[in-house]
């Protein structure tokens, strides 16, 4: 048998050309798929950034959306009453014998900050940094913002009354 017959099991030039065409087409299809995937990824990412910029949220979309709280300034902090623990424990409505922030027991000479909205007490050095960042009580999360005057509704039916 002669190798020129074409039946000897040896690849001919025509067979090799067909094989290389198949490889070329396969590589072209893979390249096209990768290009489409990368293009869609970058286009959708830019579109999300544009939507966030229109909404005024410049943060990336992979972070959780949070509302930014702004605490009190120094003048407002100074308007909250300060009391000595020795005087505060004489009141009947004082609850707690330790600071909920640092968990240290109060001493008779400790200066405490009384939050007007809820009546909770904290060490001044513990609660002031919190109130500079957050406008709420660290325990009950009631707003600690002082109100200039009470409304008629709160005079008629108080929303919250302390236990007596």
UniProtKB/TrEMBL annotation:
Question: Any idea which UniProt keywords this protein has?
Answer: Membrane, Metal-binding, Transferase, Transmembrane, Transmembrane helix, Ubl conjugation pathway, Zinc, Zinc-finger
The EC category is transferase
The RING-type domain, residue ranges: 99-141
Which Gene Ontology cellular-component terms appear in the entry? membrane
Q: Which reaction does it catalyse?
A: S-ubiquitinyl-[E2 ubiquitin-conjugating enzyme]-L-cysteine + [acceptor protein]-L-lysine = [E2 ubiquitin-conjugating enzyme]-L-cysteine + N(6)-ubiquitinyl-[acceptor protein]-L-lysine
For this UniProt entry, the molecular function terms from Gene Ontology, in alphabetical order, are: ubiquitin protein ligase activity; zinc ion binding
Domain of life of the organism encoding this protein: Eukaryota
Where exactly are the transmembrane stretches of this chain? 23-43
Sorted alphabetically, which InterPro entries does this protein's record hold?
ATL71-like, Znf_RING, Znf_RING/FYVE/PHD
Q: Where in the cell is it found?
A: Membrane
Associated pathway: Protein modification; protein ubiquitination
Coiled-coil residues: none
Q: What is its EC number?
A: 2.3.2.27
> Signal peptide position in this chain?
none
- Pfam families named among the record's database cross-references: zf-RING_2
Bilayer topology reads: Single-pass membrane protein
The family database entries (PANTHER family) matched by this protein are listed as: RING-H2 FINGER PROTEIN ATL71-RELATED, TRANSCRIPTION FACTOR C2H2 FAMILY-RELATED
Please report the name of this protein according to its UniProt entry: RING-type E3 ubiquitin transferase
């Amino acid at each position: 048998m002669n190798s020129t017959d074409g039946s000897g099991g040896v690849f001919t030039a025509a067979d090799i050309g067909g094989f290389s065409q198949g490889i070329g087409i396969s590589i072209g299809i893979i390249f096209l798929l990768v290009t489409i995937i990368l293009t869609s990824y970058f286009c959708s990412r830019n579109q999300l950034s544009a939507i966030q910029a229109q909404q005024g949220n410049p943060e990336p979309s992979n972070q959780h959306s949070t509302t930014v709280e702004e605490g009190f300034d120094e003048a407002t902090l100074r308007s909250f009453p300060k009391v000595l623990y020795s005087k505060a424990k004489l009141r009947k409505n004082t609850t707690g014998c330790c600071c909920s922030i640092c968990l240290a027991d109060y001493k008779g000479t400790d200066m405490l900050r009384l939050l007007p909205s809820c009546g909770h007490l904290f060490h001044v050095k513990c609660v002031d940094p919190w109130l500079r960042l957050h406008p709420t009580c660290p325990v009950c999360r009631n707003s600690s913002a002082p109100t200039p005057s009470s409304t008629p509704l709160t005079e008629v039916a108080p929303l919250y009354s302390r236990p007596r």
